[in-house]
Write a structure and sequence with these properties.
- The complex is a heterodimer of chains A (193) and B (261).
- Chain A has 193 residues and is an alpha/beta fold.
- Helix content of chain A is 22%, strand content 30%.
- Chain A has a single domain, classed as Rossmann fold (3-Layer(aba) Sandwich), CATH 3.40.50.880.
- Chain B has 261 residues and is α/β, with parallel strands linked by helices.
- The chains are: A alpha/beta (193), B alpha/beta (261).
- Chains A and B meet through helix 1, strand 7, strand 8, strand 10 and helix 5 of A and strand 1 and helix 2 of B.
């Protein structure tokens, strides 16, 4: 099985993600900087993100990930972005308008159009992709991408936004699969193989 | 009834609360008569399987006890649970907060410290995001009808103005409030729906209602009054109802609920 590499940007604990991803026979490691690992291009990168868009983007710059990830994405590498880790794959965010994202997906994050933010809790997914149909996912976010041609699932909180996106081997989840019960764990393991 | 005009796919959450002392789940009547209710991980998994949307662990002896037992428990829970959980009790400094998050907690809840050192709310929110902090507000309707905020597990009355406090915690960066109506707690007469209604659908953060759940009807009323989530302890621990029983009842009454296969 391909090795799974969690990108540790120091943005909160990775324990749940690690637990959700760990399974027999699949190497799993977390690294802080790209030069701390001898990449062959065959790895699966997981980019988690808690906190602000700008903070995550700054950490990517500080730890040398921006250029590495840009190349990784251009070369068709396998990557899974979660929450703000999905958002930084887009062009930018209203949360920190001066910060650039990686721009792999076209579009920007906007503030959720609902009086109660953050959105906290479970919402049903309506998508036939990745076995997500009628499954409940756990969301914790104040921003979301209203629309994207690569969207694979959408939910509504105030307005509709992208719950999941996919282009080739790059998957993004606005919700937290590692906190979404058995469905979430199976989903994570599915996209990490 | 305060139905929001804003569309939302969110389902109301049902949150069992587990009182913990020295690494065991206890029935918290008072400190002298703690009844052992079992292993936190086993109980947590039981509730997850019943369809709990989230869990809250309150270390009721944290101030007397020391924290290592709580940290070990948080680690064990995080290793095994695949739904979110919050931890509260005995959090006094940012160092305590770091330790709980590093051990795998998704959120911390503050009660006494939120009142005595409110800047802690701002600090947690700044560093971990507002979604990581739940402020627990214990409110009591006094004999004269006025609302008072209490700390120290409901034993100390503060001079805080309740209506001002529910706004201040939002401004300081709380992501949710856990509202316990002490005058309803343990009475088995339902939640204080008047208080929930008063906060309204446009209150800027989610409201977890707590205190007074006696049966499924109380959950229904709390959600209809505007609660985004409902927390309860005894009703689940005493095996009077499972989480699934409550959810089935709510679904029958057209409240969208997360269901698990």
């Amino acid at each position: 099985m391909k090795p799974v590499i969690m990108i540790d940007l120091n943005s909160g604990n990775l324990l749940s993600l690690e637990n959700a991803l760990s399974r027999e026979h699949q190497p799993l490691s977390r690294i802080q900087q790209p030069d701390a690992y001898d990449f062959t291009g065959d790895e699966i990168l997981v980019l988690p993100g808690q906190g602000r868009f700008g903070f995550i983007a700054d950490r990517m710059d500080a730890l040398g990930w921006r250029d590495f990830l840009s190349k990784w994405l251009i070369n068709g590498g396998h990557l899974v972005g979660i929450c703000v880790g999905m958002q930084v794959l887009f062009e930018g965010s209203a949360e920190d308008p001066d910060t650039r994202g990686l721009g792999f997906f076209a579009g920007r994050c906007e503030r959720l159009n609902h009086p109660k933010t953050p959105m906290v809790g479970w919402a049903k997914l309506d998508s036939y992709k990745l076995n997500m149909k009628d499954q409940y996912a756990y969301f914790v976010n104040s921003y979301g991408v209203p629309d994207c041609e690569n969207s694979t699932a959408k939910v509504t909180y105030g307005d509709t936004f992208c719950a999941a996106v996919q282009k080739n081997r790059v998957y993004g989840f606005q919700f937290h699969p590692e906190k979404s019960g058995r469905f979430g764990r199976e989903l994570l393991q599915h996209v990490c193989q | 009834m305060s139905a929001s005009k804003h569309l939302s796919d969110l389902t109301a959450r049902i949150i069992p609360c587990l009182d913990v002392a020295a690494g065991r789940v206890v029935k918290g009547t008072n400190f002298k008569q703690l009844i052992d209710m079992g292993d936190p991980v086993e109980l947590a998994l039981k509730y997850e399987q019943q369809g709990a949307d989230e869990l809250v662990f309150l270390d009721i002896k944290a101030s007397v006890d020391h924290q290592p037992s709580a940290l070990t428990m948080v680690q064990n829970v995080a290793m095994n649970l695949s739904i979110p959980f919050a931890v509260g009790g005995g959090i006094k400094t940012m160092d305590d907060v770091h330790r709980f998050f590093n051990a795998g907690a998704d959120k911390v809840t503050l009660n006494t410290m939120a009142v005595t050192e409110p800047d802690l709310i701002n600090q947690i929110s700044r560093q971990y995001g507002s979604q990581s902090i739940v402020v627990a507000i214990d409110v009591n309707r006094e004999d004269g009808g006025e609302l008072s905020v209490y700390t120290h597990g409901g034993s100390q009355r503060t001079t805080l103005d309740y209506h001002h406090w529910v706004r201040e915690v939002v401004d300081r960066g709380a992501g949710e409030i856990l509202l316990t109506a002490m005058h309803k707690d343990g009475t088995g007469t339902g939640f204080d729906c008047g208080l929930l209604n008063e906060l309204g659908a446009d209150y800027p953060i989610q409201v977890i209602a707590s205190g007074g759940a006696n049966g499924p009807e109380d959950f229904l009323q709390a959600i209809q009054a505007g609660a985004d989530a409902v927390l309860a302890a005894g009703i689940f621990h005493r095996n009077e109802y499972t989480v699934k029983d409550i959810k089935d009842f709510l679904i029958q009454h057209q409240i969208p609920m997360r269901t698990t296969p």
